[in-house]
Amino acid sequence: TNSFTMYSNTAPNAPSALETDGATNPIKVTTTNPVFTAVFSDTNGSDTGNYYQVEVNTTNTFDGTEMWDSTKTAITPITNGNRSSNITYNGSALAEGVTYYWRIKFWDNYDAQSNWSSTAQFTMSGPPNAPTSLETEGATNPSSVTDTTPEFTAIHTDPNTDSATHYEIHVNTTSTFDGTSMWESGAVALAVSNNTRSSEISYDGTTLTLNGSTYYWRIRFYDSISTPGEWSTG
Length: 234
What we know:
Blueprint: E1 16-20, E2 35-39, E3 48-57, E4 66-69, E5 73-79, E6 87-88, E7 99-108, E8 120-123, E9 132-136, E10 151-156, E11 164-172, E12 181-184, E13 188-192, E14 196-197, E15 201-202, E16 216-222
Antiparallel strand pairs: 1-2, 2-6, 3-4, 3-5, 3-7, 7-8, 9-10, 10-14, 10-15, 11-12, 11-13, 11-16
């Protein structure tokens, strides 16, 4: 006697637990081709996930600039309830400090298609912003400094909310910094939390004299992967 069994296949569930470079919505991605993963699940317990599609966009509504559309692509079969293998980004160049949004869907081994996942995001690593609110001896552009080793401070901010690990200061006789260099500190260790004023940094250059001379200074901070930010201005 011959027989056959009817099978009622249903579409996979929307992918879940999306990760970028092994993290949920990371705020500091340092690789230019991050990898994506998600969990495949299906009410048909024996089904596997055999294809994926990933979309990456500049907006969370996916109507901005399309950075990557993988289209339907084969993947090593994903056992029901398990995380996929790594899916490597293969789109347009990602820009420093920018946040991108992505989503994914799977097809099962019967070619039934899931809905899109919820939206995940990731932010590319970017350099610190230019320091702001520069102060010398606790004041902005003071005109009567009497300390020959004045203290400098500034506020550090970073697009990745990263702390600063080093500072660099230049002091010069001209505002364009092409005059006489009085001090170029090089990168010096100093921990400054994001959106916080630094501790006092003491002048350590050529001896200053109390003769009415005006000096100009600028500062930049370095982040946790030693990337220097923009110089302060003004």
